[in-house]
Amino acid sequence: MILVTGAAGFIGYHVSKELMAQGHEIIGIDSVNEYYDVTLKQHRLENLKKEKKFIFEKMDLCEYEKLTDIFKKYTPSKVCHLAAQAGVRYSITHPFVYQKSNMEGFMNILELSKNHKVENFVYASSSSVYGANTKLPFTETDPVDTPISLYAATKRSNELIAHTYSHLFGLPCSGLRFFTVYGPWGRPDMALFIFTKAIFEGKPIQIYNQGNMQRNFTYIDDIVNGVIRVLNTPKKYEIYNIGNNKAEKLMDFINEIEKNTSKTAIKEFLPMQPGDVVATVADISKISKLGYEPKTDIQQGISNFISWYKEYYKV
Fold first, then answer.
1. Beta strand 248-249 pairing with 214-215
2. Would you please indicate which residues are annotated as catalytic (active-site) residues?
3. Which of 96, 195, 263, 282 could cross-link 241 (Cys pair, CB 3.0–4.6 Å)?
4. With the CA atoms of 246, 243, 289 and 155 taken in that order, what torsion angle do they form, in degrees rounded to the nearest 10?
5. DSSP-assigned letter for residue 92
6. Is the pLDDT of residue 204 over 90?
């Protein structure tokens, strides 16, 4: 049995679905918090619960005793820890939410994984740990000592704590530095969702740094493929970039959304936001050695997302 935290979340939902399709039993944990539309999370869960291989426990990872009971009851062989408080900008205004979820919650699940000798502990880090780095592409060996958001700082802390547990207790730990994940069932606080919603509603979209941004937009199916490859390949301690093999200009991304919605966006150009970075470009040569190969370009990925959006929201 595999324990997936954040199972009602965007990546957790898709990873759980694919693991079950491969024959695994899943114990899913999620607090279903109100950071974004709870209805979307509930609909993801409803889809997962249709499968006999899926067991769901609603809880906060800070509830250590309850989490202990779950480990004792289900004895998971592997842990895929995807639960976290997400969002760079939200961390500027709500710092203690990140301290609880991303620090205390992480410690709890890591400690119990150690106590129960799980075969592999795979957890979500973030490309935001690269912070003020200007060398592109970002490589796992780059210094990551200059985070520029609290969210990034908590994710870097997770990597350091996981290293300690691997060193002291022999717990196999692999961290995944995700690069701008998008696709059907995606998060409403992410650019593709925000832009699509605004364009359909005839509202302006806010484009930061005058549109001079680059992102390693990575389609969800490719991300899931990488997560599962890492989950199936225990290492003493490893960090992987998990992104696309090319970066896209933000304005090209917006043009593709306009094409798929058959509408022209009302554009509001703004200066750079605090905590944000101009470009994220991933060197994925390390994870590629596990057979990871992103296959979905933004033309296909955006088309798939907007088809889902129109169906889900009955546009």
1. antiparallel
2. 151
3. 282
4. 140
5. H
6. yes
